[in-house]
Amino acid sequence: MSVADDKKAVVLLSGGLDSATILALARKEGFQCHALSFDYGQRHKGELKAAAAVAAAGGAHEHRVATLGVGFIGGSALTDLGLSVPQAPTTGIPVTYVPARNTVFLAVALGWAEVLGAHDLFIGVNAVDYSGYPDCRPEYLAAFETLANLATKAGVEGGRFHIRAPLLHLTKAEIIRAGLGLGVDYGLTLSCYAPNDAGQACGACDACRLRAKGFAEAGVPDPAIAI
């Protein structure tokens, strides 16, 4: 695939199926993809290994892991080992919500994009089959895009940043079908919030349930699950 030298994008890459799909979509659009993952004190660090595999298989120009010590603030079952990851559906915003996570991630990605001369930031948020996190909504993304263009040298000098969320209004099944059409290997991905020491998904957390629902509705088996 031909990629223009000046067509660069920063792609937030968690190692899950959504971020693997947006990497493929960004590549399809001809972007030189600079993939960015975060070690933020999450209990499911296996996603970083998955992210590296996805970046390599997906043709990322480079893949970097930023270490952010935000786990100390607690408040989330993903960073506080004193809180349990729910194994059944809950009401309201679940305890797996990490305070301001996407805002922090996008801020770091924005800084890197400005240095790279990239104007597009891809994030795999979804407002259809998701856990109800407030930083996955279209109005949040619009607000951050406005901030990005107000708060940066590139923005005030006439550049224009775009927060790209191509999966925002898709179901998990639609996301999976789109990724398969682009050759995404979902066997490399990890979505689970509480995998075991061998990196195997628990199958019961919210992320696992949404993933299973998506593959079932797409009518294809999940290649990450050993038969």
Automatic annotation (TrEMBL):
EC number(s) per entry: 6.3.4.20
Binding positions (Zn(2+)): C192, C202, C205, C208
Keywords, comma-separated and alphabetical: ATP-binding, Ligase, Metal-binding, Nucleotide-binding, Queuosine biosynthesis, Zinc
Catalysed reactions listed for this entry: 7-carboxy-7-carbaguanine + NH4(+) + 2 ATP = 7-cyano-7-carbaguanine + 2 AMP + 2 diphosphate + 2 H(+)
Cofactors named for this entry: Zn(2+)
Pathway: Purine metabolism; 7-cyano-7-deazaguanine biosynthesis
Binding-site residues for ATP, renumbered to this chain: L13, S14, G15, G16, L17, D18, S19, A20, T21, I22, L23
GO MF entries: ATP binding; ligase activity, forming carbon-nitrogen bonds; zinc ion binding
Cofactor note: Binds 1 zinc ion per subunit.
Entry superkingdom: Bacteria
Protein task: Catalyzes the ATP-dependent conversion of 7-carboxy-7-deazaguanine (CDG) to 7-cyano-7-deazaguanine (preQ(0)).
UniProt record similarity statement: Belongs to the QueC family.
HAMAP family: QueC
Protein name: 7-cyano-7-deazaguanine synthase
Organism annotation: Acidiferrobacter thiooxydans
